[in-house]
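Dissemination and training. As part of the outreach component of the grant, students in the summer workshop were shown how a complex can be specified as a set of sequence lines and then modelled as a single object. The example used during the hands-on session is reproduced here so that future cohorts can follow it. Participants entered these lines:
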Amino acid sequence: MGTMILGYTIIALIVCLVVFVVLVNHNIIMKSDNWVRRFITNPLTYYSLKRIGSSLISIMLAVAITFVLLRSNKNFHAVFCTGWLDKFPNDAKDYTCNVYLSNLGLKEMYYNCDPTSESCEASFRDVPMIVQLLKYYYNILPFPKEVCMQLSYEVDEVTNVGEWVCANKEWTLFDLGVSSAYRKGVAITKIVAQTMPVSFRWGIWAILLDTMLGYPLGIFMAKYKDRFIDKLGKAYIIVLDSIPGLVYYYVLLVFFSTVLHWKTIYNPDDPMTLLPPVLTTAFAGMTGTAYWVRRYMLNEFSSDYVKFARAKGLSENRILFIHILRNAIVPLSRSFVTSIIACLIGSFFIENIYNIGGFGGILISALNAEDYTMVQGLVVITAIISVVSYLISDISMAIADPRISFTADE
Amino acid sequence: MNKCKILISLLAVTMLASCGGGNQYVDLGNINGYADLASLERKDTFSTYVSTMPSTLNSATTNQQEDSQHIVNFVDGLVENDRFGNIVPSLGESWETNAAKDTYTFHIRKNVPWVTWDGQQYKDKTVKPSDFYTSARYALNFDNLAEGYYLLALIIDGANEYWQATFLNSQFKNLSENIRYSRIATRLNEMGITPGCTAKDVEKILKFERVGISYDDAAMTLTYKLKQRADYFPTMLTYSAYLPMQEEFVSSVGFNNFGSDKDKILYCGAYLLDEWDPAGTRMVYKKNPYYWDKDHVTTSTLIFNKLPTNIRSDYAHEQYKSGQIDSFVLTDADVDGWNEYVLGKDGTGTLENPAHPNAFSNYGEGSKSPFIYYLNQNRETNSQGTYNTSLRNYVDNVEASITNTNKALKYSYFRQAVLNSLDLEAYYLRFSVDNEQIRSQYAINTYTPRDFAKTMVEKDGQLVEKDYFDFLCEEYASKHNVSLEKATEKLEPMNPYASKISLEESMKQIKDACDRLKKDDPSITFPIYLENVGIAYDEEQRSYDDYFIEASNEAMNGIIFDEDIAINDLNKIYGTNATDSDVLVRIINNTNIASATDYTNASDYHAFSIFVSGWIPDFEDPLTFLNTATLGGDMSQHFGTNFHYVNADDKSLVNDGSLSEETFELFVEYDSLVRQADLENEDISKRYQLFAKAEIMLLEEMGILRPLYMTGLGYQVSVSNIIPYRTPRAGYGTSNDKYKGLEVLKQALTKQQRQALKNEWEREKAESKK
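and obtained this result:
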């Protein structure tokens, strides 16, 4: 109870802070100039706070939508109690399933009658979705709270009645629960913490290679516009973009395994097994990089400062690499930052094809295993990463490019 | 163990289990067997694929094969199977039974340490008899929702009562003690579990000490008291429910967390789990340095990768070529692989004699998990029974149609006629469209597989092994007064023609049965619809099902159907001569099965009248199969025969009207035969004779099921670096999943080497049985 009060107090304080910031920015309160006002009314601070606020709302919405969708199939018995109950006696199946669903927090036991009367039997009902959702919000909001990490079944020696009790409580900031079917009993935060570095490991190499190949290709395509290298590059971009992704992945898999006889099963101890997924991703990703680099550079070619530089007699290479490229990559830096952060999420197809134990494959596996808690947790993590990556890329772009402003009137 | 679902795809990577006759095509030259491979270099690492990764390693709760196949490599049981299939000591160093043979006392191996995943001894603890007691206590407590509880409840004295009592105790936990115990007693009496039980008895039943498992840690003995004599009991002991658990460790991690990760279990088996990635794509085993039998653990590292989804048919052989797996089985769907390894450049190779020097054609006796087609004679008309039904496309009133079908299926002669008329040849097409030989190899004609249960009999003054299948043939021959050869031909596997009847005969059987139905129950209307549930969401499987159903409908009615056309449209196709009344029985495929979940639900709700499922045996005795078909037996919910109304006075079964009187009499006779056989423990030949009588009756008269197919039968071409016949094997339990003894060469074995090893193994196996 104490932690509940503490938690909601913190939430209330955050809401108050946000309201305060909004009111100050709209000149409703604290009209006199001081350092607090200057800090709060700084466009970057205000923009960041607004984005963090809207990001939180987006995450909450994503959680709510997933919650509703996952629970839209009310037939929990069909989803959770098939197969493993085969050998239970008929008259025990329904009760067993309800006990299992109660352990998952989907149902609760109640009595429609006087619980001590001889004929009274326990019934089960669905826990209202809003109650489940609020509880989940409480668990995922990042403030210190005590959660049960280990359940233990204890039987009262005198009455012979057993109950599940919490044997081990721990303080945590962020609780996504434990996996119920995919990896029974393992904390989802632990699964996420262990799979993300795996995805990041191959993903970052793919991004680097994509950049190392895509940028030069784009630059040369722009420099030699309509000449052979440009036409070749365009052909490459069009062909790869027109092939469905899955076909492209499988064609490359066949090429690596049957033509090159490379190992296509990822082995953390063998760096060479990183090559197929990295190349597959980089070859596909560099089409977009090259396309946008070429486009932005061609835009800059007709700018006044380029004409001026030419008039000054600067060499074409100096104009290209020192002046044009610096301006052209500003819009691209945003997607670069986003891509690096998105590496944490991985890719379902690549990780499935090359047997990589990363974050990308587990969402589908969790869905197949009907592991609601895990699906929910993964959606939260994915939403947070997406939102945070856009926030960071926006802010980093603002810092890098002085032309960008956060105020509407400028 | 469990009923198993239809196999959607047959993974072509396997451990190459086999037995059976020699290969006449292979000239052995000067290779004699295992000793000749001594100079060949071994690999220290073995890699393979698994189609599913485990979700838990908690041996007390799980009964899923994807979990237990790993657990048995980490934790040893009381016994194991050797490489010839014989039961041999493991942690139970020796055992003896009492005079009545209903009590087994095991002497537990001393100084076997419990080890943590990183190879450290756990607090100097060693395996004790109480560790087996602990795991049974967890498995049998209802509140732990253990799937495998039934393996203990089935056979151990007091175990079922304890489980039922803990279940009821949980259900009535709101009540005061007196009222609770009184209600539990009433329910236990009603269920016929503990007749005459009183509230006072319940308190005792709820004490686990009353269950027939006791131990003495000082003397290192563990005793199981059985409900009744069951000589097959040792064959049940390899299942994970019988594996030990170290109480102190379980308490320290919490039972709920036990088995959730590599550091959440303790090891006393051949391997330690070194890596288990949270994404479930890879597991790595390392050899247990403290293993009691470490001399027989020859490969230090085992790597299991999860098979990617949507793989190509040539995936296995390509992975083998790039050195990422150590063996693969060829399928004719892999055209390039088939041409290269089986047919060869000049196209002269065959399934029995493949062209490639490393491709060996192995003759197998199958997985021992048969698949059957069966009828559900009590399909419900509620929302579960009509789950996603396709009947709406054919009839106006679905409930009335199901009731009508149920009425007809009450009669055994009708059921038998339907089962006889199924065109299984059309069913087998899914196994190979082009190669008749391959698809024929899947056919089975008995429920209990050949080469599953054997006994020693005296012949010409010598003790020889006799297969239960031979008892079946003898029973068939004597019942039909035909020669033994004829009977064998009728029942042997891999013969899809044995049970085939002509079109005229099937039409006649159906017509006669329907004429009889009209007399026995004039309220039955025709056509009778039998809804089949298959994997309709898989285009390929659905097209095979549609073809099979069309062929079977034709066989029953002599009319060619188009599955997409409703019965009322028949006139448009066949003219005015064809009317509904021309069609007596019609199987329809449920096309609304849109996902694996739909399929599982329809299966669990028994929302079908006809269905395919498999059965994995629990122990090495025909009883494990024949028990499924008794009234209230293991698969009775699927067959619609799950009532168990017992006459309180003489404990005899009472027909509740679910079956026709004639069918009920058949079931009672069948049940009585099975019970009689089960009580016969002295003379195993007699026991098998009685079971054979019951099984022939089941196949020919009961009209519940028809044996369909089994995997692993006949010739299979494989290429492998694994030295075969070195690992434990059995047609039941978990021994086939053990990797102890595994030896992998750095190169593929030649067909000569594999044939020589096979010959040697067969010789040694015959010796071991003596």
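The two ends of chain A are 49 Å apart (CA to CA). Students were then asked to discuss how this feature might be tested experimentally.
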